[in-house]
Automatic annotation (TrEMBL), chain B:
InterPro entries cross-referenced by the UniProt entry: BP-dep_ABC_trans_perm (IPR050901), MetI-like (IPR000515), MetI-like_sf (IPR035906)
SUPFAM superfamilies with a match to the protein in the record: MetI-like
Gene Ontology CC: plasma membrane
Membrane topology: Multi-pass membrane protein
Protein name per the record: Carbohydrate ABC transporter permease
Alphabetic keyword roster: Cell membrane, Membrane, Transmembrane, Transmembrane helix, Transport
The keyword Nuclease appears for this protein: no
Pfam families for this protein: BPD_transp_1
Species the sequence originates in: Salinimonas sediminis
Chief localization: membrane
Gene Ontology annotations of biological process type: transmembrane transport
Amino acid sequence: MGSITLKQVTKSFDDVNVIKPLDLDIRDGEFIVFVGPSGCGKSTLLRMIAGLEDTTSGTIEIDGKEATSVPPAKRGLAMVFQSYALYPHMSVRNNIAFPLKQAKVAPAVIKEKIEKAATMLNLTDYLDRKPGQLSGGQRQRVAIGRAIVRQPSAFLFDEPLLNLDASLRVNMRLEISQLHKSLDTTMIYVTHDQVEAMTMADRIAVFNGGIIEQVGTPLELYRKPVNRFVAGFIGSPKMNFIDVAPKPGDATHSLGVRPEHFKITTEQGLWQGQVGVVEHLGSETFLHVHVDHIGTLTVKADGDCQAVYGDQINLTAEQAKIMHFDKQGMTIPALSWGGESAA
Amino acid sequence: MATNSSNKTKVIYTLVAWTISGMIFFPILWTIITSFKTEAEAISASPSLFMFEWTLENYTQVLARSPYFDHFLNSVIISLGASIAGLLVAIPAAWSMAFVQTKRTKGLLMWMLSTKMLPPVGVLIPIYLLFRDVGLLDTRLGLVIVMTLINLPIMVWMLYTYFREIPHEILEAARMDGAGIKEEILTVLLPIALPGIASTLLLNVILAWNEAFWTLILTAAHAAPLTAFIASYSSPEGLFYAKLSAASVMAVVPILILGWFSQKQLVRGLSFGAVK
Ligand SMILES: Nc1ncnc2c1ncn2[C@@H]1O[C@H](COP(=O)(O)OP(=O)(O)O)[C@@H](O)[C@H]1O
Ligand SMILES: [Mg+2]
């Protein structure tokens, strides 16, 4: 069990409105990622779900039961913090045992659960060390171990991988995904990294300035962003935005083309420009192309792309995959990818 | 050459440090020396530092004349009692100020500190009358209460500063793990803050041990601690420098020893969060 429903929740610090009225249904067993730029209220909302932060108005339901003012200890949720927040004075064993001791679980059962978690997380050799004697990745595992032993109805993660180096981050990302598959428990995962969001999530909620812009599966967000913000936030490198002169009968104010949807052609294309910086990644190549009156476009090309600095090239894009946005920055579905005209 | 000049600075700093320490320590040294002199030598116009007849007479006389161990016991009970009672109040207070901050927390802290700037005579009469009416004059309990109140602002401030150094998230993790406020404070906060709590306790034992204003006024014979015992050698039958010195030495030696053994802890504690 682990469904969480937010109804019109808001949060203000003094007079600052950090979370605008917001509704969200988190389904039992899903892996939902809160993603958005720094300072948009993701952590605040997560902490409200945890009960660490009061809810200014609105209601939070956990498993169908009103939980808005239930203290954190009684919500049955587990949290993994960015700083790991291990108890520095306790051994790894006692860190993991702590929630079980609070729940007055029998010592024999605690022992068994610790062994099981330690095996699962490769911590067996470190059980008697203090957190200070562990590496960042190991500390992260202890924090996860502490969260899983008590079988919570949902896990809350607040940027858990932020303090790890890049390669470790990729590993831990996989481990957490596997953990979700094996536990089948609801996970709410906060990050500002859209790659983490895309790779791990069943569903993503894109935050911006205290509201949720869109909720959907990674591919839905990639293919059918509801507005320019989501379109620009999801996908790496970012979508290119090209302003166009409004035409009568066409609300389009700007176009959006993802770098991977450009084609370099020898014939006359839609845009012509001069190649600037070329980034060779081996498997692919990123070209930064300067186009008069438009600016710099990022183009993803094959790994063996021969273009060099200063080349003049022509660009087209798959018509069907071009996004159209109106004056307010909202997607015009009929004209965009997945819309009727493209289908 | 660089090491040469840095060696020179080291020597200079060391000399300065020793000079200042010497100046601070000299009165104590003088008291200790005087305590081994005869009364005549103690008030001699050309006092000698070491060249005099050393005698233990002052100590035997002081011990024979007054119940040193009763006073010593009073000092221990009052300073320890007040420090422990203070901790019992200051720990929850500092916890709430450090971890459940509101808009007025800072103001409250400043107000608490400002009470330390009030001259104690300002509240002397009301407290004296109050103590007289409820029968707390010349009782250990009365002094424990006064000392607790006097040192509470400092204790709360010190603990608040230590608690602020502890990442919020560790306590929040405890809350998520099912700990109530009691478990959060007892099993997570206190063990982590133990060095700070020990420093607070030590400093307050020393402050309470040395407090002389309230102890002199609120005690007579029964609950008088060592500060009152020293004072008793300064008036009625005239001044007895040598005996006064002996009494002083006996009063400060216990706390000096405590301070000596805990100096590392004290220095670390008093530098607050300055060095992490
Ligand atoms: N305790 C607090 N008091 C006042 N403002 C806060 C507090 N916590 C967060 N905020 C503000 O709320 C906004 C959202 O913060 P946060 O939820 O941490 O953002 P995110 O996790 O998305 O980066 C920020 O502008 C931040 O300054
Ligand atoms: Mg955050």
